[in-house]
Amino acid sequence: MEFVIYFQTKINKKCRKVKAKKLLKILNRLAERFDFRIYPDNSIFALQFFPSAYMYIELINGEIIGSAPIIYHGPGFHNFLCLFIDLLSKRLKLKFTVDDETGYYLNRDYSKLEEIYLLALERLLKSGIDNRGGCILAWPYPNWHPEPVSGFVIAPLGRWHQEELKVILEEGLLREFSRDFFLWPHLRKDEYFYRNLGTYLLWTEFSWTSPRLPEEENLVLKILESFQRAKLINPNINYPEAGIKEVKMILSEEKPIRSNFGFRKGNLIHLLANDWVLTLPGFFLPEREKDSLIFWGDDRSLRFTSSIDRRVLDEEGFEVVYRFDINDCSYQGKQYYFEAEKYYYLEGIIDSKTDQASLTITWKKEEDLKWALDSFLKIRKKQININY
């Protein structure tokens, strides 16, 4: 399920040309008002209203072309985007041609928009129920997702058993369920929006470890603030108390009582270049470095590089210590201990017959060898189907 709104400058004789400097100035003022981030890249501006909720604006010869994918965010976000386009048009003193497949931009019939989203949600849930294995619905991240769980439907705000969703559809509880599925389910930013924003961050963003970077510290503050705002609006709203308690215990360095929240407590599947797939625990932090992608986690790391020249490795005398043939791939690698750094190393290559990739895995504890080999063998070509 994904609705997208497109807009562009309406061309006529009186059409104004927009300069990048002026556009950025206006966007900065709007960012102060609506609390969003701007990521400029030459003539393209990405506006992040909240996690995974973006609008993209491109400036071409003084004309604007924009789009905003809505995915699972809900009718409230859809309405906000239409109002934002109106305001941007007013500030820039130009008109836009807008393409909104729901028709809402023109008719502004919010009740009708809600029905469109409920019908889309019904179709989406039915597709998830009909999937015999586990499936992932309305996932906003193209580069990673949690491991599917047999019998369950996974979405950004949680995990539901297929039988539970059958009951919801059979008993006509779809509208009530939509308040737990859509991040912005109502016209305004009400208690459900803030409750769902905190829930979303718990499930998809929080690594369930003590914050290691300023960004992780800010994330914790955002989680707690979101639930606090929801409770201020409606003290009786249901919210994940166990998950919040676990977060606070992690911050206080107490041994946490494990709750059922958080995709990052388990493995995440990362979709890499050239259709390579990598599986790692969710607390690993990714970082791009030149042609490599590095994942950092406590005393362990994994560096992945796709499309290597295998002959270079052969010329360097790539000594094979491990050799495996599984997943329609050939794996070979060598392990050694670097005394100066007190770290173990596993250097390997994977051959899928059409592509090759290389990796370096490091770890400090001898008993983590099994983890290193498992991680090595979990790199493969994409085979998992996801329902978006």
Number of helices: 11
Q: Which consecutive residue ranges, at least 5 long each, have pLDDT under 50?
A: none
Q: How would a textbook summarize the main sheet?
A: 7 strands, antiparallel
Count of individual domains? 3
Rounded to the nearest angstrom, the distance between the terminal CA atoms is 6 Å
Class by alpha and beta content: alpha+beta
Shape: globular
Order of the strands making up the biggest sheet:
13-14-15-19-18-17-16
What is the share of helical residues?
25-40%
Q: Report the count of strand segments.
A: 20
Average pLDDT number? 90
Compute the gyration radius: what is it?
A: 24 Å
The share of residues in extended strands comes to 25-35%
